[in-house]
């Protein structure tokens, strides 16, 4: 018995080779960065001045609002679009694979190429505005790049792809017989969705939603390339990058990063609190 | 018990189901071809056949998941093809039960009553009765994942019955239970049907289940109905080779009826001219090309009496002892193999020479197609 326990404890040493890089490359910088937020540049004295500066100077605290104002509406719209598409093509629909493929494809391109594509498509002389003016819907080009909407569109494209890539499998994990059972018991399509399909997929959907949301709170390249990083799309990372690379104020950069991290955790907590109010178990009971 | 239950709330009005010339095509493949059958109200009809024979397709069309390519499904004289599946009032037990995992047992059972906007007091009463009926008293607040397979199966049954369905459909409901439980559930199902008298359509590939449960059996193969009859008719007088083979006949001999002697046909096999006497029936006449079959348990192994017509000589090639019986395979001089089941363990050794007697009264004439 004792021998066994001893052996087990010693076995944990086998984790060391994989834990060591993690400790050195992630945990140490994280802690170091966290400590730096309580110090002035070039000093080791503990102070709250960075946080006081962040929450009293509009240049900094505005980023919270600006990031959330860009990312939260985008994430909600992404969820609706991705859910709609994947719900529609679930099961054995013909051409479903193609639609899913096209929806998820932007993930393979990455943020910067999507941003460039959005610029090419939506700039004042791009296809979108040219077409709109030619068919007479618009009189003059509508500004859709280098502002809030440019970043919004780019986020939507990637966000929908990310959420859809996760939802495709989840939709199929819900036994179609459950919906058939509900229908034979007298439920309409809508009631079947409301009382059977949605409660079962809800927790997974909210998890993916939360994941996507906190990923997008860290948006940088889109905000810079296709947005307006000086004002409308001045997100957390834009400010943190500016502090670190232009002002060489690593302490402030870390402070911004910590506030961003806390914001992400809060968002996560809110979404998971909502998630816990419904059914979170497995969608299969069959033995 | 039956009387007591009848006064309760499960007995629905009886429904006669007619299926007229029903065909279902998937692209160019025909899943069901011109199927016609009538299920009298209160009857227990089993659709029996191997997987892919179209039985589940028929069930899906009655249920409304699939639209027939042509033909009608009629409940009490009223075609239901155009009625949405949510308005057909059919109780369905799925093969994997399809119980809602996010609801308790009671909520699952109450689902159909919720859809019918039954008032609270009545709903509670009916759910409790249903729970008692399937012997799940006190489990009403459990979630489905906390139930065993057999209990889940009973919840599925209760959920289907509580809505007072016009017709009860069961899609291989016992196939996922272990052998002992399956037998138990079979008895319960039979009892329940006797008590409630709901028109029931049961789909299975297990001939034992079909014969034991049903008042009528429909045997299907490749989308075509092969035979409809009572279990006795199906088992005693299978119409053709497929039906006979599927419900457990063995020992098929192809040949021709060549003569009549003392109310017996004389049958001769095509290949090696083995002559056998077989009891005359009305359906066949001399000159018909037929198949002769006999159940393995009807073949007798004899010593030296009764030698003559209908006895064959052979060697035992396989001996398979399974406790209550022993299965032998005997190869005759002509190279034919006969399957024989003997009760208990009979002391025949491998390679031993034995004589087989095929009783003319027990041989059965069936059609080739």
UniProtKB/TrEMBL annotation, chain A:
What does the sequence similarity comment in the record state about its family?
Answer: Belongs to the binding-protein-dependent transport system permease family. CysTW subfamily.
Q: What is this protein called?
A: Putative spermidine/putrescine transport system permease protein
Q: Which GO terms describe its biological process?
A: transmembrane transport
| Membrane topology annotation | Multi-pass membrane protein
Domain ABC transmembrane type-1: residue ranges: 64-271
Q: Which organism is it from?
A: Sediminibacillus halophilus
Which UniProt keywords are present, listed alphabetically? Cell membrane, Membrane, Transmembrane, Transmembrane helix, Transport
Transmembrane feature ranges: 12-31, 68-89, 96-122, 148-168, 205-226, 255-274
Q: Which domain of life is it from?
A: Bacteria
Lineage, please?
A: Bacteria, Bacillati, Bacillota, Bacilli, Bacillales
What Gene Ontology cellular-component terms does the record carry?
plasma membrane
Instruction: Please state where this protein is localized.
Output: Cell membrane
TrEMBL record, chain B:
Domain ABC transporter, by residue range, is: 17-247
Q: Which PROSITE patterns match?
A: ABC_TRANSPORTER_1, ABC_TRANSPORTER_2
Q: Which UniProt keywords apply?
A: ATP-binding, Nucleotide-binding, Transport
Which molecular function GO terms apply here? Answer: ABC-type transporter activity; ATP binding; ATP hydrolysis activity
A GO CC term attached to the entry: ATP-binding cassette (ABC) transporter complex
Under the heading Gene3D superfamilies, the entry gives:
2.40.50.100, Nucleic acid-binding proteins, P-loop containing nucleotide triphosphate hydrolases
User: What is the name listed in the Swiss-Prot or TrEMBL entry for this protein?
Assistant: Iron(III) transport system ATP-binding protein/putative spermidine/putrescine transport system ATP-binding protein
Q: Which organism is it from?
A: Sediminibacillus halophilus
